[in-house]
Design brief:
11 helices; about 30% helix; about 350 residues; 4-stranded mixed β-sheet; 2 domains; 13 strands; Peroxisomal Thiolase, Chain A, domain 1; alpha/beta; 5-stranded mixed β-sheet
């Protein structure tokens, strides 16, 4: 009786127990980009740190990549789709206004016993979604949740704008989140949004305020508008502060952290966050050079890329900053070991 009660009292935590990913085969490199707009490989690499980015193409939407990423996850974990309780898709570039990407992904893969929805938090999508999933798992109501992030950023990129077109790429990644009573999983999170970023970073048309029209298309209002310096300063400040805050809150030092997994927006932002945390580059997971900024998909794609390096019990700090402005950090203890070669 005492043993049963003791087991019952163990805290349920949410742990990532598998990860899948997908990036399109087509690659846009800096040399080709420099023939499209006034830029160069040297300029892009020195300021942003991106060499190539994957491009989905015109005839497919972000849900296609989400389906591919979830299928990869299912194959790797031998997950029975009938056991899935919930699927959340983090995206700012859904295939349709409605139905949701979550609905399209579930329909394509025969996930029929779950419910699902899309979550839009721009580049902060994965950490916002991870916190949501953790809360649902901790409630005891849900046992198997798929969190998938899929972004077709090239669909909203203006390739006549030299300041923004080198930044973005396409891709998707998905994680399986389950309950555990082991000392692994989501430990803590700090998430914020202030609503002050509208003028600095937005997509003007396509919503209910400015529906698509001949004028909005002619005026190129369906592309990302970003004031680079303003966004850069806030990203460095807020990502650095919140990553440091979660360490202090949990009495951790740089020696305790195995990996920093930052949103892959700009190599200089990543380096600034790592410096604030007193972490060397070798403790920072970086793949921006090969993928560019894939918005909500960037952190899980990084985990997917480096999965073979992660060890059970590793302490990870995830940090992101995105439109809104939205930002935050998640403290995570990695939940499993796997042996396979790195994909990059």
């Amino acid at each position: 009786m005492f043993l049963a009660q003791n087991i019952m009292e163990k805290k349920i935590k949410a742990v990532i127990n598998g990860i899948g990913g997908y990036v399109p085969e087509a690659i846009l490199d800096n040399e080709e980009l420099s023939r499209m707009v006034d830029t160069s490989d040297e300029w892009i690499m020195s300021r942003i740190g991106i060499k190539t980015r994957h491009v989905l193409g015109e005839r497919r939407g972000s849900a296609y990549m989400g389906i591919k990423a979830v299928q990869d996850l299912i194959d790797k974990t031998s997950l029975d789709t009938k056991d899935v309780d919930l699927l959340i898709c983090c995206t700012t570039t859904p295939s349709f206004v409605f139905p949701s990407n979550a609905s399209l992904i579930c329909g394509a893969l025969g996930i029929t016993s779950a419910y699902g929805y899309d979550l839009a938090a721009a580049c902060s999508g994965f950490i916002f979604g991870l916190d949501t999933c953790a809360t649902m798992i901790e409630s005891g109501k849900y046992k198997k949740i798929i969190l998938v992030c899929s972004e077709k950023m090239t669909a909203i990129t203006n390739y006549e704008d030299r300041n923004t077109c080198p930044l973005f790429g396409d891709g998707a990644a998905a994680v399986l989140i389950e309950p555990t009573t082991e000392d692994v999983g989501v430990v803590d999170s700090i998430l914020r949004i202030d609503g002050l970023g509208k003028e600095n970073l937005h997509l003007k048309a396509g919503g209910s305020l400015h529906p698509a029209s001949i004028e909005t298309v002619t005026n190129k209002e369906h592309y990302i508008y970003q004031e680079g310096q303003a966004v850069f300063k806030r990203a460095v400040s807020d990502m650095s502060a919140v990553a440091e805050e979660i360490m202090i809150k949990n009495a951790l030092t740089s020696d305790d952290i195995a990996w920093l997994v930052p949103h892959q927006a700009n190599i200089r932002i990543i380096e600034a966050v790592a410096k604030r945390m007193s972490l060397p580059r070798e403790k920072t997971l970086i793949n921006i050079e090969h993928y560019g900024n894939t918005s909500a998909a960037s952190i899980p794609l990084c985990l997917w890329d480096y999965e073979s390096r992660l060890r059970k019990g590793d302490i990870l700090v995830l940090a992101a900053f995105g439109a809104g402005f939205s930002w935050g950090s998640v403290l995570l203890k990695w939940g499993y070991d796997i042996e396979h070669s790195k994909k990059m």
